[in-house]
Write a structure and sequence with these properties.
Blueprint: H1 2-25, H2 31-39, H3 47-57, H4 61-79, H5 82-95
Length: 105
């Protein structure tokens, strides 16, 4: 019974993933994104603006790269887990691939 629960959960996650990919490729704002933007809209020179700029910095390539190096070093030196180190590295590298516009090629 538990086995079928996990299979159903994985299939649900895969379907959700493909739905989100489809929505992102349409290049329109999702209703959820619009709602969150309205809820957290902040004025200039406020604590909220400073806070959200700091949170945005966590998504920059330099910060993610530094954190990834620390994680890979931990997996390599402390855990000796080469398989997870490789999978993690491939996942991070693949997640940082930029979209290439076909018109510019």
């Amino acid at each position: 019974m538990i086995k079928y629960f996990w299979i159903a959960l994985v299939l649900l996650c895969v379907l959700l993933f493909f739905f989100l990919v489809h929505e992102v490729q349409r290049e329109e704002a999702l209703a959820f994104d619009t709602y969150i933007t309205e809820v957290f809209s902040v004025g200039e020179n406020t604590f909220s603006l400073t806070f959200f700029k700091s949170i945005t910095y966590l998504g920059k390539s330099k910060f993610i790269g530094f954190g990834s190096i620390l994680c890979v070093l931990y997996l390599w030196i402390m855990k000796k887990d080469y398989w997870n180190m490789a999978v993690f590295s491939i996942g991070i590298a693949g997640g940082d691939v930029k979209r290439v516009d076909k018109k510019s090629c």
